[in-house]
Specification:
Length: 153
């Protein structure tokens, strides 16, 4: 019986470091997913701030993006990204926003992965925005006035 108890110790000595390394990898994958999701949220937030700026020059749009992005980064910092860069360019009423950063795997400094998210935004004129808002309100009123609970109709 004593010979069998020693074999459990040897198996645990082999298995535990493997499981611990696997847990560490999953934690870092979670951090990567968190940073990537933050970057998507930030690009969408920047797009939302620019959408209504129709009569604003391209330089002012870039300044608004810089200010908004610095405020966003202070609210929720990235965990494992370095060298976060933002590029804003516009052509006509379309603004192109790109965020890129280097994601560093902390235990292995030789591995960097570039995370890059981009978004194209069409700036909407105030008149067009009012028209779209009124259209959506009318559509919602039509749904609210419908008394049937049956969704198949």
């Amino acid at each position: 019986m004593r010979r069998l108890q020693g074999s459990f110790t040897v198996e645990a000595a082999i298995l535990v470091p493997f499981l611990l390394a696997l847990c560490v990898v999953f934690v870092y994958l979670g951090i990567y997913a968190y940073d990537k999701t933050l970057m998507i949220m930030d690009v969408n937030g920047l797009a939302a701030t620019i959408r209504d700026k129709n009569g604003v020059s391209d330089e002012e749009v870039a300044a608004i993006c810089e200010k908004t992005f610095s405020e966003i980064k202070n609210e929720h910092p990235y965990l494992a990204t370095e060298n976060i860069k933002m590029e804003v360019s516009s052509k006509g009423n379309t603004v192109f926003i790109q965020l890129s950063a280097d994601w560093v795997f902390p235990l292995y400094k030789g591995y960097n992965r570039i995370i890059c998210k981009e978004r194209e935004v069409k700036r909407v004129s105030p008149v067009e925005k009012m028209y779209l808002t009124e259209t959506v309100k009318k559509a919602l009123q039509g749904v609210e006035n419908d008394d049937s609970d049956d969704l198949r109709n």
